[in-house]
Amino acid sequence: xxxxxxxxxxxxxxxxDEARALAAGGLSECxxxxxxxxxxxxxxxxxxxxxxxxxxxxxxxxVAVARHVAGRQWAHARFYACEGGDPHDPLLRRLDxxxxxxxxxxxxxxxxxxxxxxDSGRAYAEAIGRICRERGITTAxxxxxxxxxxxxxxxxxxxxxxxxxxxxxxxxxxxxxxxxRV
Length: 182
What we know:
about 180 residues
């Protein structure tokens, strides 16, 4: 009985040769990751933003930072200022001044980023973190300042925030939101 021979296209032959080389362990991890064989597993289109984020600024300097960052193009981020009120249910306002009840703001939200530059919003930071935890919403805290002017805000957010970043650089707000794909 005659044995059938298979002919392979040059691309198929190259992939087969590369697969054998990869299996033999002759290439480093970096070389394997950049190989044509592995490139067929790459996603070649941008990942769509998937998170509905709410950014809440707790004090006046944090509101100024939020206004600056809000001026950029964001897919699903909304920005708010904490106006005080009941420490257990803070009153928020959109940056254009329209009141926004916290429960309404959190509806359909995936992640809340709390901005602080001082300790005046400590009770509100704790309330927002607690309510987010109860609703299963990821909370991130970004505390901007030099010499940790907002140590109480950090302490209030610590039990609730998955990410807690004390920083002196306002650009970290942009970087955090970009990393969260909002």
